[in-house]
Amino acid sequence: MNQSLQTTFPKDFLWGGATAANQIEGAYDKDGKGLSTSDMAAYKDPYAGGKVDNFTFNVNSVELEEYLNHPDKYLFPKRWGIDFYHRYKEDIALFAEMGYKVFRLSISWARIFPTGLEDKPNEAGLAFYDKVFDELAKYDIEPLVTMSHYEMPLTLTQKYNGWVSRELIGLFEKFARVLFERYKDKVKYWITFNEMNMNLNSIYTGAGVLADKVDNVEEAAYQASHHQFLASALAVKAAREIMPEAHIGCMINQIESYARTTKPEDQLQALKADQINMFYPDVQVRGKYPNYMVRYFAENNINLETKPEDAKILAEGTVDFIAFSYYMSHVTEARPDAAKIAGSFDSPIKNEYLELSQWDWPIDPIGLRISLNKLYDRYQKPLFLVENGLGARDELTEDGKIHDPYRIDYIKKHIIEMKEAIQDGVELMGYTTWGCIDLISCGTSQMSKRYGFIYVDQDDKGNGSLERYRKDSFYWYKDVIASNGENLGE
């Protein structure tokens, strides 16, 4: 045996940060951009029920009509973001100051095809991303591009009810081919869909589907996922034709599941929870549906509409790497609502051994090491941790400082476990912390739930100067990157 132990992060490890277009760009109606599904996420008081409600991003048909007919009555924070659209040079310079090797961003489909139905793309939208990629290239920062990150042209929801319609497959393939032809010399790392498994949590956010317009929400979520699997596979095939040197991956929200007890029924339920999560990369890495889902669909009265050619499309469009987000682990047990708990962010079963964030998310760095090992053992494909971070309320002091030792502690502990996983033999490509600059929260549309190393002066109502300030964690992460993960400030 000639293998040697990898004790440090690889020399070409991709350190950086992650964002999404609908949470940072703003300029929702500029330069020909059309309305997207995320533009309809109205701000709602997340504390109205007496506790933090982490999910206010769902929109039904009644709400959608109300928002379209009376937009002035509501706040839509994702429409203004943090004005990255006009401040991208300033922000990228700050990323470069930290030493980023990679910056994860997404492309707004509605900025390229305003309704999704156009024959020709919007040149102004394409030109904007050209400028962003060129600015990143100035600092030798690789872009990691998510093609669909929790938004799509609103017209496709209105006309087809989103991804429950097979019509979207061809429209997405057209979008993908335009991106690949335009940016083939500027972008080599791509992700097709962000956190596809979260369709099971919010069918509107992940798939643009109005839940009150379908008979069976779970079936619709899996039908939408099937169409996204096909669209992703066709995009992978197109990428290999147009830019054979590129790397294209899938992505899930990895939620490590623990059994509540050693009771065999609880252990079995933990396995089932893992399978629901792993179903998505199982299809996209292995190119076919796993047998356990055949039983799940049968027992839960889920009937998918498919075509004979689907199997071939999936088999020919498998991905190069698995990207994933990791924020927490969950505890599960054998109980009637176990399936619902497995994918929820606010599980009623608490882990007594873990601390909670200010948003009651369990903090579990060792769970990350477990997840890394499970994913790599299962697929033997490179992994990319593209989201991980701590949402917290940060305070800007009078002298322009932000002291965030809690964020440093959180990320440091997760980096330690990443290094342990690398020593376990896991092939890890890189790490992009979520919300490297403060942005609009996905779930609550808050600004006050801050993740970044860079503070943005803006409140939940959109008030503020939008000035950028370096937090203590900014300087700490800069040292981490410069030392390739060796200097963690101990």
How are the SSEs ordered, and which strands pair?
Layout lengths: L13 E5 L2 H4 L36 H9 L7 H4 L3 H15 L3 E5 L2 H4 L10 H16 L3 E7 L5 H7 L6 H17 L5 E5 L9 H5 L9 H26 L4 E7 L2 E4 L4 H23 L4 H9 L10 H7 L4 E5 L3 E4 L5 H5 L12 E2 L5 E2 L1 H15 L3 E5 L17 H19 L4 E7 L19 E3 L11 E3 L1 H11 L8
Helix pairs in contact: 4-6, 8-10, 10-13, 15-16
What attributes characterize this protein structure?
490 residues, alpha/beta, TIM Barrel, 8-stranded parallel beta barrel, two-stranded parallel sheet, 17 helices, globular, Glyco_hydro_1_AS, GH, EC 3.2.1.-, GH_1_N_CS
Structure described in brief:
With 490 residues, this protein is α/β, with parallel strands linked by helices. 40% of the residues lie in helices and 13% in strands.
Descriptive notes:
The model has no long low-confidence stretch (mean pLDDT 95). The chain has a single domain, classed as TIM Barrel, CATH 3.20.20. Helix content is 40%, strand content 13%. The chain has helices spanning 21-24, 61-69, 77-80, 84-98, 109-112, 123-138, 154-160, 167-183, 203-207, 217-242, 264-286, 291-299, 310-316, 338-342, 365-379, 405-423, 472-482, and strands spanning 14-18, 102-106, 142-148, 189-193, 247-253, 256-259, 321-325, 329-332, 355-356, 362-363, 383-387, 428-434, 454-456, 468-470. It is α/β, with parallel strands linked by helices and 490 residues long. The chain is globular and about 60 Å long. The protein has an eight-stranded parallel β-barrel, surrounded by five helices. The chain has a two-stranded parallel sheet with strand order 6-8.
